[in-house]
Every structure is written in structure tokens, then in C-alpha cells.
Amino acid sequence: MYNFEFEKPSTIADAVAALGDEDAQALGGGQTLIPTLKQRLASPSALVSLSGIAEMQGVCVEDDGSVAIGGATPHAVVAREAAGSYPALAALAGQIGDPAVRNRGTIGGSVANNDPAACYPAGVLGSGATIVTNTRQIAADDFFEGMFSTALEEGEIITSVRFPVPQAASYQKFLQPASRFALVGVYVARFADGVRVAVTGASEDGVFRWSEAEQALSKEFRADALMGLSINPMNMIGDLHGSKDYRAHLVAVMTKRAVAACL
Amino acid sequence: MPKDSGIGASSKRREDVRFLTGAGNYTDDINVHGQAHVYFLRSDIAHGRISNLDTSAAESMPGVVRVFTGKDFEGVGGIPCGWEVTDKHGAPMQEPAHPILAQGKVRHVGDPIAAVVADTLAQARDAAEAIDLDIEELPAVLDMKAAAKDGTTLVHDDLKNNICYDWQLGETDNAKVDEVFANAAHVTSLDLVNNRLVANPMEPRVAVAEYSRGTEDYTLYTTSQNPHVIRLLMCAFVLGLPEHKVRVVAPDVGGGFGTKIFHYAEEAFCTFAAKACNRPVKWSASRSEAFMSDAHGRDHVTNIELALDAENNFIGLRTNTYANMGAYLSTFASSVPTWLHGTLAAGNYTTPVIQVNVKAMFTNTVPVDAYRGAGRPEATYQLERVIDKAARELGADPIALRRQNFITQFPYDTPVALTYDTGDYNGTMDKLEAAADLAGFAARRASSEANGKMRGLGINCYIEACGIAPSNIVGMLGARAGLYDAATVRVNATGSISVMVGAHSHGQGHETAFPQVVAEMIGIDESMIEIVHGDTSKIPFGMGTYGSRSLAVCGSAMVKATEKVIDKAKKIAAHLLEASEADIELKDGQFSVAGTDKSVAWGDVTLTAYVPHNYPLEVEPGLEETAFYDPANFTFPSGAYACEVEVDPETGQVSIEAFTAADDFGNIVNPMIVDGQVHGGIGQGIGQALLENCAYDENGQLLSASFMDYAMPRADDVPFYGVDHSSQTPCTHNPLGVKGCGEAGAIGSPPAVVNAVIDALNSGGKAVDHIDMPVSPSRVWAAMKG
Ligand SMILES: Cc1cc2nc3c(=O)[nH]c(=O)nc-3n(C[C@H](O)[C@H](O)[C@H](O)COP(=O)(O)OP(=O)(O)OC[C@H]3O[C@@H](n4cnc5c(N)ncnc54)[C@H](O)[C@@H]3O)c2cc1C
């Protein structure tokens, strides 16, 4: 680790101000950033911790029925507090990492990081959630821009994520055996006006929507509706843990299982 | 009735109290006043020539004490190899130099190039970044078969090729072996890979060295399984220091699994630098450093052929193996694929003609050396896989085929240089069949199938040679040191006992089990006895702990020393009781005169030994004895394992539903500790079979360089085990009749798991012969697809 300054503001405004310094960086739960710093792969001048900002904490149900999660809310809190209002999302949060990771890691950090194998991006995109920042609201469809890349500007903070709650939803995660991130994870959400299917872990372009499956399932919400559908392996990730073909295959299997779990 | 103390009791592990409450004293807990920290600049290139190495900017960085490069070690010895293997033409193995810091060339990712000693670790790291380094990249030698070809890139320019040795064991007459195979009714052949592993003990390696200018003494604290071996190698071969001026301490060590047997460059470096800098020097490996500098394990590529006659008797076995040595020869590397592997080729079977061929290869990878089981898992895996394949091809029952070929007469001389003293393979298999409820398997399979899963049963038998080792035999085989061990039993005046043992405990539970033996022999409470280990200044000598040798070898020395103590104590007791020494009996800590009610307690005798007011003048005062023990033979634990798996036909995911081990470890001192050793070994074996994969890309970059990509087994990857060690044929040549249990689980489990997966797939109509380990979901899926 290189040396850095540390700040822990208590309001979003102070955090934004502190992040005005060009080389300052937001610190969520540190579950990605701290290992990066330890390996000396980043050298921020200052870390601005978001964990002391009360308005970025917790889960609440809005008037329109959507569930809003503060950007600095740890996974363990979501797993617990969203269990009633949005069970599928709570279940997703409860499957991230191990207890230590879930008690430190935050939704804002996970979504901002957009790891191609992370779970939350599938939940956010699959739900058609809205990412709320200190300056604007960004639809999930416009937010994820490929592996480790998002629509966030320099210094922009995710203050909350707002999820419309579907009639039924399920996240099916197939574990990468070493990291236990998603080798392939599929989030299926059934709304009154259609079905969304978001896939993580599989693609070199990060989280994506499987539109053929969405169309098929919107017509007929049964696992059998997916028969004959397949993903082109070309843009899939191929690595030590699974070939492109295997990942493409798993996308279909996990989607089918997610649908079955919704029924 | 189970005993509650002494031999055979499941005494609780007393050392766990300090380990579990954070009161252990590990090497990283040791901080010496004034210590500086070292950071190693390591190669991020697999193979290359150092064209520029300029440390001047680094030297003037804040806090820097000194920057070392290979130049500082010119004329200093390199890391030695402890075992000289002679190839099949009678020539000695090729033995390249293994410098402390790179000399002109780097040969694997992680090879240390320079070392910065500074006031703090952060300063050392900062300065390392200021070192100006250019490496001219050379093609990386990775594929062992390609590396064996003439004209290929050389890992070591001064060697004639990349072959360390081309070794053979068993039948030397190729024509005879060919004839056996030509006349066979059936031949089964299998190509397989024994995957490279990283041991990953919980505690990474650490070294702290200090030097006293006043006395010219060195102390090295290090994470070692065998401090005396480190002292011997470092003093005699690397630094040229007198052994009496060097103390090596291995305090609490957080797991070894073999990888902490070896003498490493970092230990020698810290010792050297402590004098050169006139300051204590400390190094603690990060986990990333451990991945690229701890010796790796396994990494064999093998073709095995089994010949059977028309009655399914095994009549011939031939193996051709490429064994990876990595870039340099680590301490025991050369012995692993040869004398610890080829000699086990017979397994539990009467195969009369066996030929083992091994080419050991240099490649641009981390050195490979002993890892839990060392050579024996590789031997067992190939043999038990080919037997399983033969059974499938012949439509034979895998258990019946094994039973039919079991060795049943002991002692048994194998065609590959060993004499098994005892065993009861049928008896052990009987235990397994009962403990694993094999009769109920068909019903369990049916219920798995009803849930859409394929279920398989995998059987495996193993034999291992451990209790390493009879010094005269290993000497003939090329070991450069004997492998005896020593113990001193020091009785204190008030009767408590310190036993200084050469074995080192780093998880095995010696601190509990060894006192059980002495307590049993004298008849006193276990708590009166304590083990002292891990410090060359306190213990007489010791070759350390590996090869399941601690109790069989060092424990035997302890028994001998305790016998000497008892003999002397009897002389003193005879004097106190005014009786003849021959009439003195020792029972429950009381010396009594046979046939009388006259007795004297252990504590009175020990007090007399040290406070000799009333003492037999012809006996020396004091009560302390040392014994060295050199085993007459290896010990031969054996076992039969059964694994049941379910395979998800959609994803290829394997889950282990049941695992049962029936082992014959001879006599058992602490059944609970033995269970624990078997559990841990099976866990590691399951890790190898399903999860662990140390992989390099085509440029020699380590792909699985962290836990993000190297899959260690977690608690939920393994089932609750059934362990049965009631099959007991005691070892015939050591005083306790013990055989060793530390490696069995890791040897016996991988083939059981893979056999079970193959059985499951075939039961589900997928004609799959073999899948290389780790049998990951993606590999299973690819195999199912065909
Ligand atoms: C052992 C382990 C296992 C894991 N397993 C999983 C898993 O199974 N599935 C999974 O999805 N994830 C997994 N993770 C990742 C974990 O979920 C973390 O939550 C996630 O990596 C980042 O969240 P964080 O709050 O820790 O962010 P940090 O590490 O603090 O930050 C990550 C990045 O996001 C930025 N950032 C943080 N908060 C905000 C914000 N509010 N607004 C804008 N930018 C912000 C930071 O500047 C940084 O660039 C695992 C991590 C570990 C260490």
C-alpha cells in the first residue's frame, strides 16, 4: 500500500467536496479497493469513506412500492432488511462472498466496480433498477458499460439504488470454484409488462440482458419456453474455470432454473 | 472400554488451547530489537536474461540499509539438493546451480533477483520499485514432453538438456516386458496427469535472522518442519558456517504439508544479511509470494499400462512418467518421482513384472517437491485408475478384481525394491465394505437418479511406504543424509519429564501423543510430560517431520531413551528398596520388589537421582538419557477407501455424498488424532481431485496465482467422513508397532473420487474413460458432451 490521506465525511455534500481532489477515491466496504491498494495497483491521494453517511445507509420501501437501498449499505443488511420487501434481491445479497465480505462490502461499491463476475449488477439490470447519484438518476440499462466500466463520472457517488419490485424473481448463481463469485449468474424478474433476464459472470462485456430469453419468457413464463434458445459462445469468457462453450451452456441452464424457481 | 490416558486414549490435543486462543508463537510473532525488513524483487518473467540491474537509485531511498543482488552471492554456495538420483545408464542426475539471488538469468516467475533491506517493509518495497531492471525475455520451457526434445530452449545453459535424469526401476529387460504385454489376454492403457498443486499452509513462510558481533553466533527463526536439516544444509552447503555457531528455531508452525521441509533461499538470505548488515533481518511472505516461491507439488504426466491374463490376474505393469522439477532442484525434489514413487508401483497387488520409467524435467516453473504423500499419491492414482478402467473394460467388479490380485503373504518382496512387512488387504476391504454400507449403494443410486442426479461409487486401495527411512537403504538409493531420529528424555528432580524430540509438530499433535507413550511406559500422568521440539539448541538432533515418520522413527527413539531412563531408575529404586535390580518392577509409577509389598514412588526415585544423599555410588547421579533410532525398514500403512458422488447431468457439478476410509495403521496411540489426520488428508485429496489446479499459461505466467483462481477445498466441499482404523497389523520392526497415518488420506482419496465420478457418468450412459484432475464442472461437462 502507498500512503494516502483518509477522510470520513458524514454528509453526501462533504463527501462530494472531498472527492473533488483529482486523485481522491471513494471507499465503500473496501472489499475490492483495499486488496487493490495492498497490491500497489492503485495510489489514490485520499480515501473518502462513505460508511459514515447516514443518508446512504439502509433499505426502505418508497411510496410507489419500489425498494430503495442506500449506496453504502452492506450486503448483510440488504440480505436481512430486504428479505420481506424484495426477497430475490435479499437472497442475492446473502450469496455474495462470506460473512466478512457481506458485512463490509456495499451495494454502491459493487455496482460502481462492475466486476464482470459480480452478483449485484445482475440484480440491478435484471430488475431494471435506477442508480441514483449525487447529481442524477441513471437507468440500469444505461449504467453498465462493459467490464469494470460504468456511466459514473469522476468523483460521482452512488447514493442509492432504487428497485421496482417484480411479481416474481430469482437469482441463480453457479459458483466459480475458487473465488465463489459467479461463474455464471442469471437474474430473472417477471413484471406485469414483461420479463427481464440479466446475466453476469459469462460475458467479456460484463453484465448483459438476454433478450431472446426475455421475449420467449414474456410470451410464456415457463422453463420450457427457453427450449432451443442458446447463447452465442463467441463473446463469452473462457478461462481456467470454464470454456466459452461451457459458460454459454450454463447461461441457459441457470436461466431455466431461475424461471423454475419463480414458479 | 476406551482408555482415558496413555497409549490408545483419545486424549484431547493440549496444544490446541494455545492455537485456538491466539496464544501461539509463530515465526511472524517474533520481532527482534532493531530488526530491518527485507523485500524481494522477484521476476515477473518466466525465462530471461538480466540485461540491466541498477540498484543505485534504490540504495539512496529513505530507510534503505542495503540492496543485495546476485553479485553479493558470488562465491557463496547455492541451495543444495539432498538426494542424488542415478539415471538408468548409471550417470548422476544433472544438478544445476540454485543461487540465492538470480545470477544473470531468471528461470521462473517469482525467482528472486534482488533484495532490499530497509527499516520498514514499506520502505523496502518503495526502494524495490526504484530498482532499474531489464530482462531480455527468452522462450519459456513449459511442456515437459517438448522440453525433452533435442535442440529445444535450455532452462540451464550449462546442462546438456532439460532432462534431470532418465530413471528406471523394476524390470530392466525391455524385451521381457514387451513379451508379457504381447502375451496378455487384455491390456489397459491410460494417459493421465497428476495435477500441480500449491500446498498453501495457513501460515506463509517467514524467516527472522540475527547475528551477534560479540559472540559470532547466528539465530534463525524459520517456518520449518525440520530445523536441524535447515541448519545442516545452510551451514555446510550454502553459507559455510560452523554448525555450533548457528541456532535454528522453528517455533509454532502453521501447517507444512511438505512445503516447509525444504531449505529456501530466503532463509539463507536473511542469515547472510543479518551479518552483512549487522542487524536482525525479517522476511514474511505474502500469500502472493507463497504462490510463486513455495515449492509446488505433484505435476506428473504419465502413461500407464496394465497387462492381465485370461483369468484377470495382473501379469505386468509399465509406466512412463514425465515429472516436473520446475526451474531448480528443491531439497528432496529428485527423490519424489523416483524412490518415493516408483517403489510404490506394485501397490497392494502381486503383479510380477513391473517397469517404471521416469524422466524428470527442468521447466520455467516454480520448483516442485514433496507435498503430503510425495510420489506415493502419484503412484496410487495411476495404478488405481488403470485398475478401475480395466475392470470397466472387462466387465469385472472393481472390488473383486482388486481382491483377486491382493498380496496375501507377508513379508512380501515387490519387484520394485521394497519388502512389505505386514498387511491384511482383504481384512481391510471387509471393514470398508461394512463401514461404507456398500450393499446399500444400489438403493442410494436409485434415489439419486429419482432426483435427476447420476450417482457413482469409487473404490481405491493404497499402500504407502513411510516411517522414512532406513538410513543404509536410502543411502544406497542416493540420499545424502541418513534419516534416523533422536530423542532425549530429561527427568526432573520432582519427576516431571521434558522430552526433547527431533520430530517437529506443525499440526500433527505430537505434544499430546508423544507424552501418552511415555506416560504409558512409566505409569504416570500425561500432564507430567512435555515435548520440546523445534530448536537446535535444545534437542540433540532430528531429521524433522515428513513422510509420516514422527512416531515411527522419532517416537521409537523416545521409547528407547525412556527404556534407558527406566533401567537406570530401577537401579536407584533397587538401592532405595535394598533389593536386587532384577527384582524391581515398575507399574503405575511405583517401583516395587517382586513378590513383596515394598515399593517406592517414581517421584522419590527421581528426587534421589538429583539430590543424592542416599545414592548407589556405582550409578551416576542424574536421570537423562538420549537415544538415536534408525529404522530397519519403511513402514507400510495400507487402506481401502470408498467415495460416493452425485453428478449434476446439466452442469457437471460433482458433489461428494459419502466418503469412507478403512485404514491399517498398525497400533494407534491416539485414535482421535489419527481420525483428524485422516480427515485432513482426505480433505486435501478431495481438493486435488475436484478443485485445485496450479496452472501456467503459455508464457509461464502463473494463472492460479491467488485464491481468486486457485480453488482450496472449503468445509462445504467435503462430506462428513467415515473413518475406520480397526484393521490393525502392527509394524514388525519398531517398538510401538506403529506405521504412520499423516499422508494416507491424501494418497488414498484422489483415485476414489475420480473413480466415483467415472462410475457415475457411465451409470448415466456417458461412456467416459477418464477426466484429468481437478474434475471440475467444466471438465465433467466437456467429457459428457464427448
Ligand atoms: C473474498 C471475497 C468474495 C467476494 N465474493 C463476491 C461475490 O460472490 N459476488 C459479488 O458480487 N461480489 C463479491 N465480492 C465483492 C464484494 O461484493 C464487494 O462488495 C465489492 O467488491 C465492492 O464493494 P465495496 O463496498 O467493498 O467497495 P470498495 O472496495 O470500497 O470500492 C470498490 C470501487 O467502488 C468505488 N465505490 C465504492 N462505493 C462507491 C459509491 N457509493 N459510489 C461510487 N463509487 C463507489 C470505489 O471507489 C472503488 O473504485 C467478494 C469480495 C471478496 C473480498
From TrEMBL, chain A:
Keywords: FAD, Flavoprotein, Oxidoreductase. Residues 1-168 form the FAD-binding PCMH-type domain. SUPFAM superfamilies: CO dehydrogenase flavoprotein C-terminal domain-like, FAD-binding/transporter-associated domain-like. It is an enzyme of class 1 (oxidoreductase). Its EC number is 1.2.7.4. One of its GO terms (molecular function) is FAD binding. InterPro entries: CO_DH_flav_C, CO_DH_flav_C_dom_sf, Diverse_Substr_Oxidored, FAD-bd_PCMH, FAD-bd_PCMH-like_sf, FAD-bd_PCMH_sub1, FAD-bd_PCMH_sub2, Mopterin_DH_FAD-bd. It holds the Pfam family FAD_binding_5. PROSITE patterns: FAD_PCMH. The keyword Lyase does not apply. It comes from the Bacteria. This is Carbon monoxide dehydrogenase medium chain. The gene is cutM.
TrEMBL record, chain B:
Pfam families: Ald_Xan_dh_C (PF01315), MoCoBD_1 (PF02738), MoCoBD_2 (PF20256). Residues 21-139 form the Aldehyde oxidase/xanthine dehydrogenase a/b hammerhead domain. The keyword Oxidoreductase applies. InterPro entries: Ald_Oxase/Xan_DH_a/b, Ald_Oxase/Xan_DH_a/b_sf, Ald_Oxase/xanthine_DH-like, AldOxase/xan_DH_MoCoBD1, AldOxase/xan_DH_MoCoBD2, AldOxase/xan_DH_Mopterin-bd_sf. The keyword Secreted does not apply. Keywords: Molybdenum, Oxidoreductase. It is an enzyme of class 1 (oxidoreductase). GO terms for molecular function: anaerobic carbon-monoxide dehydrogenase activity; iron ion binding. Its EC number is 1.2.7.4. This is Carbon monoxide dehydrogenase large chain. It comes from Ruegeria meonggei.
